[in-house]
Write a structure and sequence with these properties.
Largest sheet of chain A: 7 strands, mixed
Shape of chain A: globular
Number of helices of chain B: 0
Distance between the termini of chain B: 41 Å
Helix content of chain B: under 10%
Distance between the termini of chain A: 37 Å
Order of helices and strands of chain A: EEEEEEEEEEE
Largest sheet of chain B: 6 strands, mixed
Strand content of chain A: over 45%
Oligomer: heterodimer
Number of strands of chain B: 12
Number of strands of chain A: 11
Structural class of chain A: mainly beta
Radius of gyration of chain B: 14 Å
Helix content of chain A: under 10%
Strand content of chain B: over 45%
Number of helices of chain A: 0
């Protein structure tokens, strides 16, 4: 069974640009979660999508947004990038049967 | 609201010595508890979880954790560590069935000294 995949592995942008990160969940999982892991700040919950709908979002500004597609894959968009957006962005998926989140390898975003 | 406290940010341990990584949680409802491990430059891997039943749960690589409701703790232990256990360990809590959103602790960096 393939795990959660994320692309790209690394992404380098400059301040003010937009970044798009992608995630494919484990087959059969309908929920996708996004977390930000910034240096010194631990894992911060960003967004939760289930069945194509946004179910919850963390304490992040509106320039962090995303969507979930009919095949349950997901996209995270970060507009007007700031230096402090530099972090590892982790995507995770889950199902009703398997409790807990299954994480992908992450996308490392660097904002210069 | 739920929260997780990992008091130790770094724990150095000699190889083959025992280790305990502490985790305490705060929640007003029943919880599900998890330990995740993050090896250098990788994502998070589920190490073990407590959902219900036996309060002692084990992983395949020798770690175990015990759910203690009265002390609201879920400490992670291993009787003898190996160099390959060097990683960051995160404790996490989830409330209620159907909501998988996890709240993570700040992590404990385990360093094994040869």
């Amino acid at each position: 069974e393939a795990g959660v995949t994320q692309s790209p592995t690394h992404l380098i942008k400059t301040r003010g640009q937009q970044a798009t990160l992608r995630c494919s969940p484990i087959s059969g999982h309908t929920s996708v979660y996004w977390y930000q892991q910034a240096l010194g700040l631990g894992l911060q919950f960003l967004l939760w999508y289930d069945e194509g709908e946004e179910r919850n979002r963390g304490n992040f500004p509106p320039r962090f947004s995303g969507r979930q597609f009919p095949n349950y894959s997901s996209e995270l968009n970060v507009n007007a990038l700031e230096l402090e957006d530099s972090a590892l962005y982790l995507c995770a998926s889950s199902s009703n049967r398997a409790r807990g989140l299954f994480f992908g390898p992450g996308t490392r975003l660097t904002v210069l | 609201a739920q929260s997780v406290t990992q008091l130790d940010s770094q724990v150095p341990v000699f190889e083959e010595a025992p280790v305990e990584l502490r985790c305490n949680y705060s929640s007003s409802v029943s919880v599900y508890l998890f330990w995740y491990v993050q090896y250098p430059n990788q994502g998070l891997q589920l190490l073990l979880k407590y959902l219900s039943g036996s309060t002692l749960v084990e992983s395949i690589n020798g770690f175990e954790a015990e759910f203690n409701k009265s002390q609201t703790s879920f400490h992670l232990r291993k009787p003898s560590v190996h160099i390959s256990d060097t990683a960051e360990y995160f404790c996490a809590v989830s409330e209620s069935f159907g909501n998988e959103k996890l709240t993570f602790g700040t992590g404990t960096r385990l360093t094994i000294i040869p």
